[in-house]
Amino acid sequence: MKSRGRARAYANIALIKYWGKRDEKLVLPMNSSLSLTIDCFYTETEVIFRKDVDRDYFYLNDKLQGKDTTEKVSKFLDLFRKAAGLNLSAVVKSRNYVPTAAGLASSASGFAALAAAANVASGLNLDNRQLSIYARQGSGSAARSIYGGFVEWKKGSSHQDSYAVPIDDAQWDIGIVIVMVNSMEKLISSREGMKRTVDTSPFYKVWVESAEEDLKHIKIAIRNRDFKKTGLIAERNGLKMHAIMLGANPPFCYWEPDSLKVMQIVRQLRREGIYCYFTLDAGPNVKILCRLSESHKIKDRLIQFFDPDQVIIAKPGPGITIL
Ligand code: PMV
């Protein structure tokens, strides 16, 4: 057994959102989702199973982490230890690579890199499909970061068939401009936000049906490399996700005034013939799907209102890499 593994995984931006679990423990989603892996933000993680430590140690950006964060990592490593019949503690070292000091965190790149490194270190040698199933249990969106380009996470019917599949390498004129409106940690975690929405929002049932419909149409648009249609479906789907949160009890909203400002700028750009489309996740930052060839023009407009450090251009990114 090789007891050391090191891997890199990239973040992804959902164009059809995952919002809501049907099984909290196994992280089985209510609806299938689709994302684009991006190249500008990634995590590198090393896992070493060692005989000379009596508990797991987790360092993030060189800083030893406390009990709660380490426990999440330990629980995740237990999946690998159990499957490999391994009874050793681990030292895990992780580093997030972010283009600015914006503090953009991604559980997707984090758990995908951890899964890929643990896979090597435990000697399990799972294939990417199995790895996606493992990563999913760390954080749902991590299931998609196993692959590059456009990726679909199939909700499946059980634990064993809820995994991601690559659907297009995104090697066409596609990019994402990220506007960092606020890098503070969010007040309502996606886990908590999802649960509240599923439990209390009267719109939730409609969301599930409508997300499946959006997914069907965006896959056709991507297959046809129809950029405008892809963007329009993504923008609408994202807005619908935020609408169901407004219907929750108590209601909540991740947007900030600057998020709306960015949406306004995007709509204005479209009126001028620069086709681009916004989407927001469980936070105020805005991601703009655009033609990569027009990303600099879009950034130029945005920095009339925002600091250049707040505006990041991303290209489609690759899947996991073993280092
Ligand atoms: O993977 P989680 O539990 O952080 O949830 C991600 C939720 C969204 O980012 C809002 C949507 C998505 O599909 O990535």
Description of the structure:
With 323 residues, the chain is an alpha+beta fold. The protein is globular. The strands form 3 sheets. Strands 1, 4, 5, 6, 7, 8, 9 and 14 form an 8-stranded mixed sheet that branches. The protein has 2 domains: 168 residues, 2-Layer Sandwich (Ribosomal Protein S5, domain 2); 140 residues, Alpha-Beta Plaits, CATH 3.30.70. 37% of the residues lie in helices and 25% in strands. It contains 8 helices and 14 strands. Bound molecules: (3R)-3-hydroxy-3-methyl-5-(phosphonooxy)pentanoic acid (PMV). The site of (3R)-3-hydroxy-3-methyl-5-(phosphonooxy)pentanoic acid has 13 residues, from α2 and α4.
Please give a handful of descriptors for the protein shown.
binds (3R)-3-hydroxy-3-methyl-5-(phosphonooxy)pentanoic acid, 323 residues, globular, alpha+beta, Alpha-Beta Plaits, Ribosomal Protein S5, domain 2, four-stranded antiparallel β-sheet, 2 domains, 8 helices, eight-stranded mixed β-sheet, 37% helix
Poorly predicted runs: none
- Quaternary structure classification: single chain
CATH domain class name of the largest domain: Alpha Beta
Radius of gyration: 19 Å
Enzyme class: lyase
EC number: 4.1.1.33
Domain Mvd1 C-terminal: 176-310
Pfam family, one: MVD-like_N
